[in-house]
């Protein structure tokens, strides 16, 4: 232990470790207000039978730290005094509870039972926060059933995100709030006291609602054991198993009652599928192996699973070339005015400081002038499916656009009560999201290299937490945690051979990720997307703290060692990006007004882009190691 203490004192930093358990402390006195030394105090967790013990010092002071959030029965015993029972003491997340007891003279076999007293005041800490209790979590309706969204109900918390996106697989939405007047999404998010964030401080892992015991939101934290944030702290506390077997089974669904979108009705189209189906189960209890092991009061398990199938349609109006325009015939646009005239870029002649061009006869591009690459692209462009405006704009209604997600989430936990002086728990968590985004060209995803990237989000986490009572006045807490968040994007056209469109082979061989090259237009709906990305982010934490109970004070010091690793591999426009505007086909002068539509697609057919690029991006990796120490002195009783 001396070696460990010395190692802790070596590190001095600017951030702190986090504690999620409660402390009950106070003073024991006799009827004349004299101190009762050597009294035995036993706090028994009602649902698991786990015991936490200590004795009062020469001044009658005692402290019970590291109490997991739960309801406790506390017994005070001293020779020559009646045994004192205090029932129903609720210890919340990171609470400091002051509980002074006056014993009555009598035999130890006599008992004084105290129940149904008024709630105890927080008199031992200046921290400001609010606990969302198990009862509230179980009874309050929550859209998406994401526990972190409950923190937005606490005082001092101001939500600033779209309330639709607080689903279990959302990461920015549930964490989009400010605390104590600090900037939004700048808070420390914890799960059982361990960091639970992405590289940009979104939440990494959202546990199932049924797996959460409490949510503690603290907009101001006076304890030096907290930090690592410019705002507040939100701590999500997971449930453990108990001496009784419990289980839940649920399903939530809404689809049939959703209205048909306005523009879908207007176009006379069928209502797209809209669905949010959330289902799962949980089971917990003592670990029991018939005839071999009985874990009651000793070993407990918790297992939870949740799945979501989600479809959020977003019908989108776009613009597609007409059959005539696909063949270079823009004659129908002339009825809208002379500004729609398509000029031949090869006829340009110098006229002072300007260039003058001649229109294509009949506003039609000759077939032998159409680029072979453009002809090959036409197979991926949809046909118009609604009337649109007089000039043809907004003639495409995509009913396949929107968001679709498949999501699953597992969490497991084991708790071990080795003795009244030694306890530890282990949890493992994992979730996975597979989603798809925009599909503006109205093509099925299974045959659509033009759709946006497929979004994935992976999260893994493991934690071991050990609390060892070395003596009545010395306690040690060791925690090891690993959290990984990975958010890859993969284009639906991944592996596409751009030489099949007519592009030169040297472009395809240089592409770090082979996808269909991107086309951008001034008026028409574009095609293709970037090559995707890989953004893995890891947090490794080793946390060690020691608590020394010295009279009226709890002295706590320790270390929070964190290593964060983030790799950024964004492929960007990895196989080329080509923009087609009006610069080649407007006229009669090169600075004449551009047509609202038509001239951009004509430039595409001619194979004459106005801009573009080809991304070859680097892949940096950043590693940050933070060695931090904290020292806390707090009063052990309100006296």
Secondary structure: elements and pairs:
Elements: H1 2-10, E1 22-29, E2 40-45, E3 51-55, E4 61-67, E5 70-77, E6 83-91, E7 96-98, E8 101-102, E9 111-114, E10 128-132, H2 134-139, E11 157-159, E12 177-179, E13 188-191, E14 194-195, E15 212-220, E16 233-238, E17 246-254, H3 262-266, E18 275-286, E19 288-289, E20 293-294, E21 299-313, E22 316-318, H4 323-326, E23 343-351, E24 354-359, H5 372-377, E25 396-398, E26 402-419, E27 422-436, E28 453-469, E29 474-486, E30 489-491, H6 505-510, E31 518-521, E32 533-534, E33 537-550, E34 553-567, E35 569-570, E36 577-580, H7 599-606, E37 611-613, E38 621-635
Parallel strand pairs: 1-7, 1-8, 6-9, 13-16, 31-36
Antiparallel strand pairs: 1-4, 2-3, 2-5, 5-6, 10-15, 11-12, 13-14, 15-16, 17-18, 18-21, 19-20, 21-26, 22-25, 23-24, 26-27, 27-28, 28-29, 28-30, 29-33, 32-35, 33-34, 34-38, 36-37
Could you please describe the fold and organization of this structure?
With 639 residues, this protein is mostly beta strands. Among the domains are: 2-122, Carboxypeptidase-like, regulatory domain (Immunoglobulin-like), CATH 2.60.40; 128-238, TonB-dependent receptor, plug domain (Ferric Hydroxamate Uptake Protein, Chain A, domain 1, Beta Complex), CATH 2.170.130; 326-383 and 579-613, no CATH class. The strands form ten sheets. Strands 17, 18, 21, 26, 27, 28, 29, 30, 33, 34 and 38 form an eleven-stranded antiparallel beta sheet that branches. Strands 3-2-5-6-9 form a five-stranded mixed beta sheet, with no helix packed on it. The longest helix is centred in the first third of the chain and has 9 residues, at 2-10.
């Amino acid at each position: 232990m001396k070696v460990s203490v010395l190692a802790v004192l070596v590190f001095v930093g600017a951030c702190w470790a986090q504690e999620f358990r409660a402390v009950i402390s106070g003073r024991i006195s006799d009827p004349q207000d004299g101190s009762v030394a050597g009294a035995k105090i036993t706090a028994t967790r009602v649902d698991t039978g786990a015991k936490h013990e200590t004795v009062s010092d020469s001044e009658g002071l005692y402290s019970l730290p590291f109490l997991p959030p739960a309801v406790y029965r506390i017994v005070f015993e001293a020779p020559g005094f009646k045994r004192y029972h205090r029932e129903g003491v609720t210890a919340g997340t990171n609470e400091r509870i002051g509980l002074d007891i006056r014993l009555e003279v009598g035999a130890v076999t006599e008992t004084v039972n105290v129940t149904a007293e008024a709630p105890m005041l927080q008199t031992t800490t200046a921290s400001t926060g609010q606990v969302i209790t198990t009862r509230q979590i179980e009874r309050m309706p929550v859209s998406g059933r994401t526990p972190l969204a409950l923190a937005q109900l606490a005082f001092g918390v101001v939500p600033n995100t779209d309330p639709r996106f607080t689903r279990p697989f959302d990461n920015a939405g549930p964490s989009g709030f400010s605390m104590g007047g600090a900037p939004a999404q700048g808070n420390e998010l914890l799960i059982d006291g361990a960091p639970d964030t992405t590289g940009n401080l979104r939440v990494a892992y959202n546990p199932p609602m049924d797996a959460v015991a409490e949510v503690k939101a603290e907009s101001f934290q006076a304890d030096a054991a907290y930090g690592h944030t410019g705002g507040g702290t939100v701590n999500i506390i997971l449930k453990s198993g108990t001496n009784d077997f419990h289980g839940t089974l649920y399903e939530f669904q809404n689809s049939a009652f959703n209205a048909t979108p306005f523009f879908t009705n207007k176009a006379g189209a069928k209502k797209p599928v809209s669905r949010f189906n959330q289902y799962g189960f949980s089971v917990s209890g003592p670990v029991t192996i018939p005839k071999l092991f009985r874990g009651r009061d000793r070993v407990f398990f918790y297992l939870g699973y949740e799945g979501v199938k989600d479809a959020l349609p977003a019908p989108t109006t776009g613009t597609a070339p007409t059959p005539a325009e696909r063949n270079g015939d823009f004659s129908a646009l002339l009825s809208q005015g002379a500004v729609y005239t398509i000029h031949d870029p090869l006829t340009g002649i110098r006229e002072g400081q300007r260039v003058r061009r001649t229109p294509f006869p009949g506003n039609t591009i000759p077939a032998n002038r159409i680029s072979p690459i453009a002809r090959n692209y036409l197979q991926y462009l949809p046909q118009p499916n609604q009337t649109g405006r007089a000039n043809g704009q907004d003639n495409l209604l995509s009913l396949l656009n929107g968001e679709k997600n498949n999501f699953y989430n597992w969490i497991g936990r084991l708790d071990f009560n080795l003795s009244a002086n030694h306890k530890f728990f282990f949890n493992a968590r994992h979730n996975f999201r597979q989603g798809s985004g925009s599909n503006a060209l109205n093509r099925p995803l299974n045959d659509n290299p033009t759709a946006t990237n497929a979004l994935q989000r992976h999260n893994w986490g493991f934690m071991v937490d050990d609390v060892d009572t070395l003596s009545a006045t010395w306690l040690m807490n060791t925690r090891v945690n690993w959290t990984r968040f990975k958010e890859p994007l993969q284009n639906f056209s991944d592996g596409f051979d751009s030489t099949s469109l007519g592009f030169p082979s040297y472009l395809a061989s240089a592409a770090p990720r082979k996808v269909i090259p991107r086309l951008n237009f001034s008026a028409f709906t574009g095609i293709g997307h970037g090559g995707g990305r890989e953004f893995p982010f890891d947090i490794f934490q080793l946390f060690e703290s020691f608590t020394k109970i010295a009279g009226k004070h709890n002295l706590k010091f320790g270390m929070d060692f964190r290593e964060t690793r983030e790799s950024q591999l964004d492929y960007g426009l990895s196989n080329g990006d080509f923009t087609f505007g009006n610069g080649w086909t407007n006229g009669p002068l090169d600075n004449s007004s551009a047509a609202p539509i038509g001239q951009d697609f004509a430039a595409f057919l001619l194979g004459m882009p106005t801009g573009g690029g080809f991304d070859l991006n680097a892949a940096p990796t950043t590693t940050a190691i933070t060695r931090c120490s904290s020292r806390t002195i707090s009063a052990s009783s309100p006296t």
